[in-house]
Amino acid sequence: MRTRALAASAAVFLLSASPALAAGPPDEKLQPYEATVSHAQAGIVADSGIELDHAGFKAGVLGEQKLEIAVTKTQAAALEAQGVELTAQQLDKPGVVATGGDSPNPYYDVFRSYSEPGGIADELRAEAAANKDVAKVVEIGKSLLGKPILAIKITDDARNVADGTRPSVLFGAVNHAREWIAAEVARREAKWFLEHKRDARVAELLKTTEIWVLPVFNPDGYDYTFTCGTGAAVALCGPGAASSNRLWRKTLRDNNNDGIYGNAGDGVDPNRNFPEQWALDNEGSSPTPSAEDYRGPYANSEPENAAYDRFLKKIKPVYNLNYHSAAQLLNASFGFITNRPSDDDTLSRALSGTDGDAAVDPYTPQQASELYVTHGETVDWAYLQHGTIGFTPELDTAATAGASGSSFVFPDDETKVRAVFDKNLDLALNLVNSATHPDRPSNFTQDPAEYQVKPTVDIQPTKFDVSYGGPQIVEAVVRRSLGNVDVSATISGPGGTSRSQLLRATPYLGGERYGDVPGTYFQRVRVTLPENWNTAAAPRVPTVGDTVAVTVRAGGQQQRFSYRIASTQQDKTKKRVLVVAAEDYTGTSPNRKAGYATAPRYLQQHVDALKAAGYEVDTFNTDAPPLNAAGVAGQRNPTFLGVFSHFDAVDYYTGDDYVPQEPAETNPRYLSTATAFTGSNVVASWAVKGWFELRDYLNEGGKAVLDGRNANVTFASTSTSLTAYSSFQFYADPLYGFNYPPNGGGDDDRPGTAYLRPHDVNNDIEQYFFGVGSRAGGYGSTTYNAAPVGPVGNGIFAGVAPFSVDTAAGDDPNTDAAGTTAVPRAKSVTRLRTLSSITSQQPLRQERAELDVQTTPAQAANGGVAVSTRDTITFGFGLEQVDQATRETLVARAFSYLLPTDADTTAPVGDFTYPAANASIGSNSPVDAEVQGYDERGDVKEARYYVNGTLITTDRSFPFQFRYWPTAAQSGTTLTLKAELEDKAGNVKAIERPVRIVAETRLVEAPLPANAPTLSGSPTVGSALTVVNGGFLNNPASTTVQWLRDGDVIAGASQSSYTLTAGDLGHLVSARITASNTAGDADATTKGLYVSAASSGAQGPQGPAGPTGPAGPTGATGATGATGPTGATGATGPAGPTGATGPAGPKGDKGEKGDTPNVRVTCDLSSDGRSIVCTITAVSPATSSAKLSGTAKISGAKTTKRWSGKGRVKVTLKSAKRLKRAPKVVIKVGETSKTVQAKR
């Protein structure tokens, strides 16, 4: 079955406290409340600053929804005063129940704090000490309260290899203090790799990859959640105790400087404090200290963030998982912009998956901003600075574990916690497995039941099928490792002889607001095909009806597409404007039956008004788009590259359309009564794609007018919340490499199958590009219909006489439910940007009301029926609804504002946002700077940054940020930061900001071997060897020496010299030097020398010969006697030579069977269920050196493994699939078999 996190329980996600709500008394605690809200009430909740989307509120779900919020009693009262009914909830008060956990905490069986004895910090130290061959613990910095922030490094010879030498993978957790399940997953990952360090596969990975685990980013806040009370009354307690701090989220910064850390107004959200897009707006983070997403007083203000920042610079991880809870999501970059992922998105998707086929089942992989927009976020910051491919897994909720109450209070149950770790382990293993080849990731396991990493798209052209002009940009996202990218193109058709071009692509540098973040492994490149494809003397220019075939080539690969020339500019002396007729008259809303007209109703009126203003005008009809290269109607939405890019401005209007919906929609949306809407909230995909293309056009200097009485319905909300959605949804295209069964047959429970889910339509494009933060009135109301419309202040339409808007129902296409009877509704005016409680935007984005209804009394809320930004003007009515003279006046004023004819001689406006003038910055810290720059015509070309007159970098996209690391020589000096803002006309604004670089103590780092030590002396018994230290980096406080014989320590041999003994004869002798300081230790070992015997001395001279003694006398010979009897047989003489080999004799009898050693066998199933480790130990009467050999296999398996050894042997058996139950193992020793039940 399909399971989605947001539908798992009626009690969904915990909301954050409001920046707009008063914090209340300082000792008030966050408490859980439940609320059932309508869409309007959800807007009130969101207006108060609560993270609505993280609460599980789904904009596309109609009717009431149940939410849980965490606020203080004071804040709850403020919400209830606005009509939001709250029901107080209680935190569970469980006693400690033994579930198999090993927590040292007296109140929990599984969970443990960071700093308590035996807590996470002690555990990291103990694990590193017990695994010195592959692990070391590193302090990356200290928290605000001085607690060490510890990470553990796991790699072969970890202590003696410089950090960051090998490709690194970083697993981090607990930016947010209350997310305990995140800490558990991270700490268990470290333990898993250490427990499996001798597994052949893991051991190989540890030789090439550094694994870093940072279980607790925010130790102050995390420890605080294990306590009750405030200030001096803080004490360790269980979650249900009075004044519990269990739901605390932030750091413990003392925002109000009252000397108490952790009262109601304190803390900074460390996941909003990094410099990336910091303080861009008040949606992605809050400026209010009491808010749960308070971004801090300045970027990197928190010591935890500064420490992590330096840590990233040191290890530069290739991959990063930053664990959070609770939502069951896999979020990828970016979080700061909606529906615009990074250029490495194909890689991110290959690793994380998609709906139905996710790397963690049943999590939802998505771009991070789909949850909510964030600025200063951890994963985005690592990507922007170091190209780290990162993900934010939002882990399970309490509800998915069968618990009620706050989603963050995960059950204290070992089985349930273990289950969350287990299902997240495979993604972690895939990242580690791919660290040496991050752009072509691969699976750790080939088990088909597990998620399989998908292929990536090496060449991704940005395709379009029609072009409206001469010079034509061609773009593609291409794998960097493929090398240079070439684009070949051939034009043919009625314009003349075919001609071809071959051009080398160059990197895209970004637009005015986004696009300046290059991909790490994929890059966005462009070429511009010329207007003249031949010579000046014999030009060949694109002509209507020509087709262009494009091929993008790189690394021996290619991708093709073709487009047709639909139009070209005729008069280059005039500004060229495109009218997009998005009337959707072939669609189904509000008419219910496809097709309420056969042609655009209002296109000509728009064209005539623009021509009257002196512009060259072209059109694009979304219901009858131009023919493509195949000679059939092309895609329904105009594209940025093929269409919009050829125009100075665009007029995009929607006529009588309510919501763009497909002709095949079975339940179209319409007005069932004068005020009630009914029907599907799914928007046609072409309309959403066109909206994104229009944003790309605006990002690169385009200007646009948007008009239509319902033009803002689809993409703007009635809520005044900055985080609101429009209540509509859309379906994105299928992703490359995934299996989508027919008829939406993909399922979370069918491995390897994907399906398409609807995505919520965000209001950010309306909000930040068109200035429409909300809307009121409009279709289904008559609130403003009788009022005249007139100019606001001294703006664009100053002096225009008030005019009326035709709101009569007339030929409105709304019908009855059957779609057979016309039921026209009033064509009501919509007020835009009714944001009375919202602060000003950044100047580049700042909107202004230009026209408004003139009512008595006057409208109290900000906004109007026409709103402008520096690049756009939006009308809350259709230009066809006013008379011709008024229409021509409005069009002329609007486009003359967007397309001024006078020369631009005004320089941009700008100043440093940070750092403050003469700020003191530590010599080991970066200088982070941002310039708030804008141009009166909205066209800043670039910002250039200098330090002491030297150009450091150039930035194309707002916000204009840069970073500089001071040199050691600059400590104690003043640096002059300079920024130059240049607009497209070449006007330059220069600003300067002095900063002081002050001496800063460096973090102590553990020693590292500089060079290998060496031995001097003769390796013979009786001789002395001396070890010569090769040196250590990082100022060791002490060194010790150990002499080794065959790798084993020689007792008592701890001096720099060692005299070899007879016991060393024939052995390999070496020396190990260990260097230590307060941060840790490292060691280095010499090459070994084999020891030989002492040689005998040289032979001495021969001594003199001794004297010869005298000879004795010879006796006389006696007579011969008689022959005696025959004597006894004499002794046998010496053996004669061996004779030839005789024939083989018969086979002898079989000898007796030898004894099989007695053994004890134990087998343990690994935590991941994929391996079993059996230990075979010789027992009495066998000795500890008894030779053992035999075979082992999992009962029922075909594969048998042979083993041998002495005394005690370990055998590891692998399973191709995860074993849910511990199996039996058959061990054979000699001729004896034993069957052993493995233990879990």
Q: How far apart are the first and last residues' alpha carbons, in Å?
A: 30 Å
General shape: globular
* Broad structural category: alpha+beta
The CATH superfamily label of the domain at 120-216 and 267-284 and 292-435 reads Zn peptidases
Q: How large is the count of helical segments?
A: 14
The biggest beta sheet is recorded as: 8 strands, mixed
What key attributes describe this structure?
1240 residues; Aminopeptidase; Immunoglobulin-like; 14 helices; disordered N terminus; protease; Ig-like_fold; hydrolase; zinc ion binding
Topology:
Elements: E1 14-15, E2 31-37, H1 39-47, E3 65-71, H2 73-81, E4 86-88, H3 120-130, E5 135-142, E6 148-154, E7 168-173, H4 180-195, H5 200-208, E8 210-214, H6 219-224, E9 227-228, E10 235-236, H7 303-315, E11 319-325, E12 329-332, H8 345-352, E13 353-354, E14 357-358, E15 364-367, H9 378-386, E16 389-395, H10 414-433, E17 459-461, E18 466-467, E19 472-479, E20 486-493, E21 496-504, E22 506-507, E23 522-529, E24 547-554, E25 557-565, E26 576-581, H11 603-612, E27 616-621, E28 649-653, E29 670-671, E30 677-678, H12 685-699, E31 704-707, E32 725-731, E33 758-762, H13 764-769, E34 775-777, E35 789-791, E36 830-832, E37 848-853, E38 866-868, E39 872-875, H14 884-898, E40 909-914, E41 919-922, E42 927-934, E43 940-947, E44 950-955, E45 960-964, E46 974-983, E47 988-998, E48 1008-1009, E49 1014-1016, E50 1024-1028, E51 1032-1033, E52 1038-1045, E53 1048-1049, E54 1057-1059, E55 1068-1077, E56 1080-1085, E57 1089-1090, E58 1159-1165, E59 1171-1178, E60 1187-1194, E61 1201-1206, E62 1208-1214, E63 1224-1229, E64 1232-1237
Helix pairs in contact: 4-10, 11-14
